[in-house]
Fold:
Amino acid sequence: MDIALSVDGLRVYYFSQFGIVKAVDDVSLSIRKNESVGIVGESGCGKSTIGAALLRSITYPGRKVSGNIILDGQDITKMSDEEFDNKVRWKKISMIFQAALNSLDPVFNIGSQLQEILHQHGYSNDNLDIIKDSLHSVLLDPSIMKKYPHELSGGMKQRVSIAMSLLLNPDILIADEPTTSLDVMVQSQIINLLKKLKKDRNMSIIFISHDLGVISEVSETIAIMYRGQIVELGKAYDIYKNAKHPYTEKLVTSIPNINSQETNFEYLHKKSEDLSIKESGCKFYESCPYAKEKCLNNPPVIKHKDGFVRCWLYE
Ligand code: SF4
Structure:
């Protein structure tokens, strides 16, 4: 099979003094080799937590409660930390982190920071070719190794972050909000670069973003997340042109249209922003224009040819 990674029944909860927040609540997802999958949703919906779970970097008070993540036939959630670091992190799955522009160390030059990653993975000092290759692949001249982060533009820093994530030639790259904080021209350059890298390196890419417009440009498959769950999964074109879930509909219609005079945008959450309260029933119930009494029960996951929708409307 050409499955690069599959996630099954993943649950990640945050145990706070105010209650349990189900950041990721029963998420299942498969990514094929050389496929780009976009995970879209508003802030706090759990999309970045999925990325953190894939790299086993969930921080306290969060914890993976259940679920499997299968890579090359092995459940990486069952590996020891040492085995995961040796076999998977950076080598099989790598990540461009959110706020990557601020993630470079201001006191070391770019070359030292790239070399440090290689040292951590057992490479000797004789590794300049690997670093130069990685910089070339993101269209940066190797002379940038002598520069410090403050000498670089936002776009260059983002390219360095991408070069870092590619150093050990991963099979799967997670790009968490890779264009946030960049101006529009640079956003477009970074998106084109990621598309090219995917093709050249035969990688799978998981794009995480709140911006459905950006995601639909770079992803073949899109997962729409709402309050910890994937409520719709499908081909990018279908999600954009033929949204099934009421939340997806609202997300698509909220994308500003330069030709429209519409200024009256509707808020999605009408009653509650509390992420910890919903124990059962559809999580979109309070904002859904089609809500019925049976929606107070957990909605079924209705599969179709290219994905699924989690909604009573399609039962
Ligand atoms: Fe709306 Fe019901 Fe579907 Fe939830 S299950 S999105 S409340 S129709």
